[in-house]
Amino acid sequence: MGNESAKYLPLTSPLLPPDDSEACEQGSYGVDRSKNNTRHILATREKILIIIIVLQTIALIVAMYNRGRGSSAIPCRCPSTDGMLLYSPAQSAVEYEIKSFTPGREHKTIYQGASKEVDRAWGELYNHTILKIPKSEAALLPNKTYPIKHEPGYYLAGLDVFHQLHCLNNIRRALHHDYYANDTDLDEEHVSHCVDTIRQSLMCSADISVNVWQWSDSYKAVVGYSTQAHTCRNFDKLRDWAREHRIHEWIDPLEYVEDDLPTPAIIS
């Protein structure tokens, strides 16, 4: 143990050759060799330190990236692009949360059935369908949008989630055709459009939350578990963002407005 401690060379102490007695016997040649050994050891340790620093930096970058993707906190704010290939002005409002779905069988939700209360609940989900965004954000959209005449510098916009909810509500109302017999917007073509719109949306978002099966003592059989957890965007946050960008004035769809906003080259 004593010999090992004698050979230990701390970074802050003078460096000696492995066998200093031999170096003294060899005179000046030993001194030169000692200097060469010292420089070699210092250079080696510098290289090791540089490698350690680089590896630590890489590990820190990877850890920060994984944390940004939401692997360590719930709810969390995802990276600025949210994994999207196309720009959306609502990206700043996106936050993730975990929610468990309800089967809507034994215990109905306020969004099922047909009544004034149900209609009101659905209306509160998507009552901000037409929004406004500044020209700087409109210029980043993959599709060209239309200017607002009475608010120069602002353009029409809308989040597709609200259109999808509108379509789903139409399908709900079509299921209760007796209650909504006087509604003229529930023609077959409109409802068919809504069905295919929701189909495309479901395939686009492609929820990969995992469905599971469990043994049921009540049914004495393996049954599907319908209240599994999902990773969801916080809908309330997006609805708050839409509320802040809503249009209060009526837009005349028959009025043409001159505009110099360029047409995007990617998607027409």
Count all strands and give the number.
Answer: 6
In percent, how helical is the residue content? 40-55%
**Rg result:** 33 Å
| Whole-number mean pLDDT | 81
Strand line-up of the largest beta sheet: 1-6
Give the N-to-C terminal Cα separation.
78 Å
List its traits:
268 residues, alpha+beta, two-stranded antiparallel sheet, disordered N terminus, membrane, Tat pathway signal sequence, transmembrane, transmembrane helix, UstYa-like
Overview of this protein structure:
The chain crosses the membrane at residues 48-65. With 268 residues, this protein is an alpha+beta fold. It is 41% helix and 10% strand. It has helices at 2-7, 20-25, 28-68, 116-125, 135-138, 160-175, 188-205, 235-244; strands at 96-100, 131-134, 154-157, 212-216, 221-225, 229-233. Strands 1-6 form a two-stranded antiparallel ribbon. The chain has a two-stranded antiparallel sheet with strand order 2-3. A two-stranded antiparallel ribbon has the order 4-5. The chain is flat and about 100 Å long. The termini are far apart. Mean pLDDT is 81; it is low at 1-31 and 65-74.
